[in-house]
Give the backbone structure.
Amino acid sequence: MTSPQRVLFIGGLGRSGTTIIEKLLNELPQTLSVGETVHLWERGVKANERCGCGEAFTDCAHWQKVGDLAFGGWENAPVDRLIDLRWSVDRSRRLPQMYKALRSGTATDDQREYLDAVTKVLHASAKAAGGAEVLLDSSKHLSTAALYALDPTLDVRVLHIVRDPRGVAYSWMKQVARPEADGAQMPTYKPSRTAFRWMTDNAGFELLGRKVPTLTMRYEDVLADPAGSLTQMASLAGIDVGQDGFEFLDGDVASFSTPMHSVAGNPLRFGGENTTLKLDDQWRSGLDKRSRQIVTAITAPGLKHYNYPLG
């Protein structure tokens, strides 16, 4: 019997620093970043947006090989049906059914149909990369992590990333272009909405951690000690880093040279061969007083839980 494909699922609320962490992990031996597979069908197969390697989806040799291995070509994949299924089964409101399925070990027919297609893609991605031991999936969504954990052919481990909610709220208030989509903008959200999502998503990942191997790390701690943090992440993923595993790190400078075939994600996944690993704390001067007070009030229990200061 073939061993389940290891998947290190990078979870947490968007704008929590997950992209830079994904890039660091992608430099480790036997890993392959596939990006936000939750958006594969719409942004990759249908919209032909750019892969993290810089090529359009249809021009990316990796993803074309994946399509051939998984479906005999992307033209044979039931894309519209899979988009409908994704919006049906991979939703936060479906979490109770997912947790129930995790306890019982049985998925619904729609969950099974969707997972069959997703797992074909994931197994084909590993094979197309020459047998990648660990796939890095940065979909971030709690519902996606719970859904993927239902499939017995995947060995899902969750890297739960937490960032100071005031920094997350400030980031979601900014206009950020999506260069892979002809200048389209990423959405913006009010601080109150972000704060409530920060609380519910992090609580959900804590709950999922009772069923799925999970490591919770703060974004701020990762930037303070990249090598030490990566050692913990590699241990979770079952990766033997070895003596030369961190050659791409020189103090606080990371030299990124491994292509990222991330099908969707933050624009930071493009470029940046030599990147200084610097904490993004612009929110300290940029977030207005009222927004800061709102976010702090809503997230106070979580701030205490994750050892962030209230002030």
In short: DSSP finds 13 helices and ten strands in the chain. The radius of gyration is 19 Å. The chain has a mean pLDDT of 92. Residues 178 and 267 are 6 Å apart (CA to CA).
